[in-house]
Amino acid sequence: MADTLTERQAFMILNDLPNIGPITLNRLLQELGGDPRDILTADKRRLESVRGVGPETSAALLNWRTHFDLPREEERLAQAGAVFITARDEGYPKMLKEIHDPPIGLYRKGSYLFNQPCIAVVGSRRTTLYGQSVAKKLGAELAQMGFCVVSGLARGIDTAAHEGALSVGGKTAAVLGCGIDIVYPPENLDLYRRIAETGAVLSEFPFGRKADKQSFPMRNRVVSGICEGVVVVESDVKGGAMITARFAGEQGRLIFAVPGRIDQTTSHGCHQLIRDGATLLTSVDDILSELNYLDGLRPKAIETEGEPSVLEQLLPQLDAQERRVFDCLKGGSTLSIDAVASATGLAAHEISAALMMLELKKLVSKRADGTFEARS
Q1: Considering the domain 95-293 in this protein, what is its CATH number?
Q2: Residues paired with residue 232 on neighbouring β-strands, in sequence order
Q3: pLDDT at 299 over 80
Q4: Fewest beta carbons within 10 Å, which of 123, 126, 139, 175?
């Protein structure tokens, strides 16, 4: 039967086999040529020649039919209106491929393809009104600027961040620590549905898998892996958000922490992160500043005679709104957001989002007086 499987079906089988981690699966793919079907048809000796594969793992791979019911899983996908995507598909988040243990596949509900930069906003389930307000405000402002807001659909900070992004019609993605058919907490069913309608709900776990102490940390590494940076709004020193921040550090992502009251346990984790070197966050401008600084440290492409300039390469990648805003500025004008609105007819939030993307692409810079100009 393995010979008649499609590549996607083989990836789904491998992803859902018990007790085989993503590091081992990625190593098997690398050493056996990259086709997941070859892993399912390999013999015991070949499998165990791969580092990290012992008798228990090889037995699970050789007897995958006893662990996985492919027709049932595909029927569940159809009934749920979900898809299974692999790292070779367009909708698989690009930054997630960079981490050392990416999932070989993800279950997804929603059509969002992660073509915007992502920022995670995470924090405690037991939160204060201050924390909820900050998270919702950050979610809304980041979404207005064109970011996709990523979180875990949990109570408290996660819920507020998702709600903030949705309140302005922005993009948000929820990464689950359980199967995609399980809504946890159950009171977030409506939020789950709204995210799936305009953004994406993701899980690396098979249908029916309940959340546990192992699945939540696995989920947290995906949350940080998708994103340019992670914002911790409220957390105690042992909260799940601290695990997400640790993964972010290991993955080379930016880490931001929102300060709070010194007598609130929900702020102790954030204060520890700040002491350890995380960026103290007071507004979304802090995120933009760090992203621009990081981009300044990245190697620049060397232009040679006859090759298109960086500007010529970037212009075709601009969407319609970004191009209209850039065209207003490229003649040397220095304009405020109101002036750009007057010239383009775009709404202020559309202009803010376009300017943010143009800044990240190093095509536009913000002056000290708050006006914008095109970079020469």
Answers
A1: 3.40.50.450
A2: 122, 257
A3: no
A4: 126
